Amino acid sequence: MLEYFDPRNDIDPERDYGTAAPSTDPVPTGDLVDLVVDGAKVRVPDGTSVMRAASIAGINIPKLCATDSLEAYGSCRLCLVEIGGKAGYSASCTTLVEEGMEVSTQSDKLGRLRRNVMELYISDHPLDCLTCSANGDCELQDMAGIVGLREQRYGDGGSNHLDDMPDGSNPYFQYDPAKCIVCSRCVRACEQIQGTYALSISGRGFASRISAGQGQPFMDSDCVSCGACVQACPTATLTEKTIIATGQPDHSVITTCAYCGVGCAFKAEMKGDQVVRMVPWKGGRANRGHACIKGRFAFGYASHKDRITQPMIRQSIDLPWRNVSWDEAFEFAAGRLRSIQAEYGRDSVGGITSSRCTNEEIYLVQKMVRAAFGNNNIDNCARVCHAPTGFGLKTTLGESAGTQTFDSVEKTDVMLVIGANPTESHPVFGSRMRKRLREGTRLIVVDPRRIDLVKSPHAETAYHLKLLPGTNVALINALAHVIVDEGLEQAAFIAQRCEREAFDTWRTFIGDSRHSPEQTEQYTGVPAEDVRQAARLYATGGNAAIYYGLGVTEHSQGSTAVMGIANLAMLTGNIGREGVGVNPMRGQNNVQGACDMGSFPHELPGYRHLSGDPVRQQFEEAWGVDILPEPGYRITNMLDAAVEGSLKGMYIQGEDIAQSDPNTQHVEAALGNLECLIVQDLFLNETAKYAHVFLPGSTFLEKDGTFTNAERRISPVRKVMAPASGLQEWQVTAGLSRALGYAMDYDHPSEIMDEIAALTPAFGGVSYDRLDREGSLQWPCNEDAPDGTPIMHVEAFVRGKGFFALTEFIPTDEKVTEQFPLLLTTGRILSQYNVGAQTRRTDNVAWHSEDVLEVHAQDAQDRGIENGDLVSLSSRSGITQLHVKVSDRVQPGVVYTTFHHPETGANVITTDNSDWATNCPEYKVTAVQVGKPIGASTSEWQQKHARFSETQIALLDRQGEAQ
Amino acid sequence: MTDAELNHLVKMANQIASNSATGNAEEAALAVASHIERFWAGAMRDKICGQLDQVSDELSPTALAALTRLK
User: Which of A116, A764, A909, A920 has the fewest CB atoms in 10 Å of its CB?
Assistant: First the structure.
């Protein structure tokens, strides 16, 4: 007998139990039920299906329409069982266990019934199993074998679907209706897992067929290509084109996606050292078996012809590149850096790490900068996204991290989404939000633009507060004012958990009528009554969770807005338990980790300011060097210093600041001024075109390491193929450091993690051995929290008492004028990732081949612009030209574009304004004008950029020529 | 340092000052000085402090008081 069934340990993610567990709680809370299946006693949580109970007991009842990622459907009738005391035959997937139930899963009668069912299926299914793409992975074939089907008595003369034509419109998968058994698994996956509702069954009875959109080809429908349907399909009907082309995988490795901050776990399914398919892993606690178009399908960049796999150097950027050995590249780079430092001083060189790299790589670069460069000029790209989160949450709550797990959303009653676009930027979590919204959770969206979440199928948005860009703080203050004004705060929570004096000061501050919705309406443009109602809902609607993104941080008051958000959560007691909290949505896979690893000019690993003697001394002792007690340059300051001429050398790992950072022409001027630019990347990106040393990088498939996602979850990245360049990034950094005279000897990234764990309290309990055993760990993970910390600030805040910070609204200097009367705000789209270096080199370009400018019909009409027109977009920083999409997603006065394509150069437009506390750029507010194109099809900058790019690509092609 | 760079530092210092206002001038100046000490590179601080006379007109009273403290 299986005694107590513990799903934490007993569930095997590799098995399909047929139906889901009744609850996602790690330990079931309901009653346990005893039953007997084929004579075996089983005890399972109440609400479990008979099919799942049997499966737990090791008995796999035949099934076709059931799979444990979907709700039971009961259509295929293959899973019939006999239940003692009940007449007839019950579908085991839709029948729940009952105390004392006696189940028989096999009898002569059941065998005959199942064979008859299978025979009907097979009567309208091609018998080309040997050459079928699903051969080796076909549940229909398996079931035919299991039920013992031996004949098909209906012949092949009747009506059938065998000649239905496949739809290959989607670049990643094929839909072959001839193979379809209409089990509805794809339709249900689209609804229940992804939440897009792009698929349905058209027709009735024999005419029933899967229909994408309004009976369209998949690419023309509203399908978002998440692939959940492909994964759910039990036959060859929906199949990855890579599988059709190459066949089934021969082995697989579990790893972590390298795209957004959700950090999905994947099985990289391999043939030899080639990836044939990425399948989201059901055991992954961040994604629970779901994926998006990027993670599942967009891995082709790893083998793209543009990959550079040889180290290269050149004396100056007008000369051709020369392929060299790794050692020659290290010696050249180190020599240049050392001579720059000899001439211009120790502070004349710096380094930038990327949130796309692993924890170990990032840790190593900051170590090299501090130990070998001898300064603190180290920053990471969180500077331009979530630096205000670090500052704001550290100030108020005491730790620079989100407070929850993703699972926490299952207990949320009210979601307040501010400046985030989860269904595009964090699609897998966006789907979970949608699922919860369909269950009735109320939604408040604060965004200048109508994001997809506002109009979700079968879900309602309570309030969409369409504020003007740049007024987040005014709106957040107004929400807090209403809560205080109407006495909706959680006084007991505040008294027990927060600093009294700071709260009293803040309460007086926020109670002032200047923060009232009636008065802030003049800035935000949001009707006061809507703000009042939204505030009441947030404060009194049950468990309320805030999810926010770069629409909060990338402002001149980004840090203030984050503190305002923390204030709201403390004020209403919405922190320290499941279902609530403050959740920063991290843009890139390892933003959290890059910050954790001390890749900041003022902090050592674990967010400890380097002015603290004990902390600094700990690292000095471990590394055997002196560490400067004073902060170094942030990215923005490095660029200023480079333009000014005091910073002459940079090491940039995996970042493309010439495309991603604001005010491109300023960045270009800075890069052009450097005497030594070392770029480590997969491709000759925009930044590398200014480089003197190119160190080829390795993809996430080519190295070992860890990523830390938005819920502080540290997950393993595993090497599934050899690095194309011969070295993993950490080995390259170690090589450069050695050439600089500071040896860093590691045999494996696990040793780097051991060093991190030894020096960083929150990581004390983290090791590769544990990650291998447990899959992932959420920090803090140490002696005080041996199993990690899913929810933070449960008993007390990390800083002790919560701190209410004053959040005065100070309008940005970036104001509309007669010359620039519109506000530009920028963002991302589902199919592309950041600067697009990876996704532009995949078939994802089929969805988004260029950046377009969304303009409201009123603004378009005022300017004589029509949908699809080429227009000029200008700001005080620069001019670019792109095509217009007239859209009611933006409000009059606001325009929107993405920054995925270098030719558009959206950041030529953005300015050098930044957050007051962290210098995080104000990407989200730029005063612009939109007008008819000026002369040619591209702006002067675009032409100059194109010429420069062409020259640089030609210099790459001429590599190997003598210099 | 070019004017553009100095202007940027002035703007940053003023931004910190306006976001650190507490009603008490001395407290605010302390807060600004502490922020600059904790988050600015020494070179940036030295530069603006070194040319404080030139830019004092462009600095808010709080920013000026803070930088004078750091000089």
Answer: A116
In a domain, residue A192? The reply is: yes
User: Residue A322 forms beta bridges with which residues?
Assistant: A313
Does residue A576 sit in the same domain as residue A600? no
Residues of B in contact with A602 (CB under 8 A): 38-39
Comparing CA positions, the residue from A900, A892, A881, A819 lying closest to residue A855 is: A892
Identify the residue among A346, A644, A646 best suited for mutation to test binding to B, counting B beta carbons within 10 A and taking the highest: A644
Residue A884 lies in a domain: yes
DSSP 8-state assignment for residue A889: S
Q: Does B46 touch chain A (CB under 8 A)?
A: no
Residue B29 has pLDDT above 70, yes or no: yes
Q: Give the CATH number of the domain where residue A836 resides.
A: 2.40.40.20
Distance CA(A538)–CA(A416), nearest Å, equals: 7
Q: Are A401 and A592 in contact (CB under 8 A)?
A: yes
Give the 3-state secondary structure of residue A936.
coil
Residue A835's pLDDT is what? Answer: 87
Query: Which residue is closest to B17 within chain A, CA to CA?
Result: A916
**pLDDT at residue B1, as a whole number:** 43
Q: Is A557 on the interface with B (CB under 8 A)?
A: yes
Range of the domain at A414: 387-581
Q: Apex CA A659: angle with CA A905 and CA A697, to 5°?
A: 145
Q: What is the C-alpha to C-alpha distance for residues A949 and A45, in angstroms, rounded to an integer?
A: 62
From the CA of B24, how many Å to the nearest CA of chain A? Answer: 13
What residues of B are in contact with residue A806 (Cβ under 8 Å)?
A: 22
Choose among A377, A602, A637: nearest Cβ to B38: A602
With an 8 Å Cβ cutoff, are A643 and B15 in contact? no
Cα A415 to Cα A450, A511, A622, A703, A855: the distances in Å are 16, 24, 45, 37, 28
Q: Are A656 and A907 in contact (CB under 8 A)?
A: no
ipTM: 0.96
**Residue pairs spanning A and B at CB distance below 8 A:** 60
CB atoms within 10 A of CB A3: 8
Q: How far is CA A531 from the centre of its chain?
A: 30
* Distance between CA atoms of residues A294 and A301, nearest Å: 11
Say how many CA atoms lie within 13 Å of A640 toward its Cβ.
23
Beta strands at A32-37 and A102-104: parallel, antiparallel or unpaired: parallel
Say if residue A184 is in the same domain as residue A56: no
Is residue A934 assigned to a domain?
yes
Asked whether the beta carbons of residue A640 and residue B8 sit closer than 8 angstroms, the reply is yes
Per-residue pLDDT reduced to its tens digit, A274-299: 999 999 999 999 999 999 999 999 99
* Whether residues A196 and A280 fall in one domain: yes
Which of A604, A637, A663 is the best residue to mutate to test the B interface, defined by the most B CB atoms within 10 Å of its own CB?
A: A637
Domain of B26, in residue numbers: 3-70
Q: Which of chain A's residues have a Cβ under 8 Å away from the Cβ of B18? A: 808, 810, 916
| CB atoms inside a 10 Å sphere around CB A703 | 25
CB neighbour list of residue A35: distance below 8 Å, 6 or more residues apart: A41, A42, A43, A44, A50, A53, A97, A98, A99, A100, A101, A102, A103
Q: Is B2 on the interface with A (CB under 8 A)?
A: yes
Residue A155: the pLDDT is 86
Phi, psi of A42 (to 5 degrees): -135, 145
Q: Using 70 as the pLDDT threshold, list the residues of chain A that sit under it.
A: 1-10, 25-29, 959-963
Distances (CA, A) of A12 to A17, A201, A283, A324: 9, 32, 8, 48
Burial class (CB in 10 A: 0-12, 13-18, 19+), A933: middle
Which residues, including other chains, have CB under 8 Å from residue A568's CB and lie 6 or more apart?
A416, A476, A479, A480, A483, A538, A546, A574
**CB-side neighbour CA atoms (13 Å) of A274:** 12
Residues in chain A: 963
Q: Contact A679/A654 with Cβ under 8 angstroms?
A: no
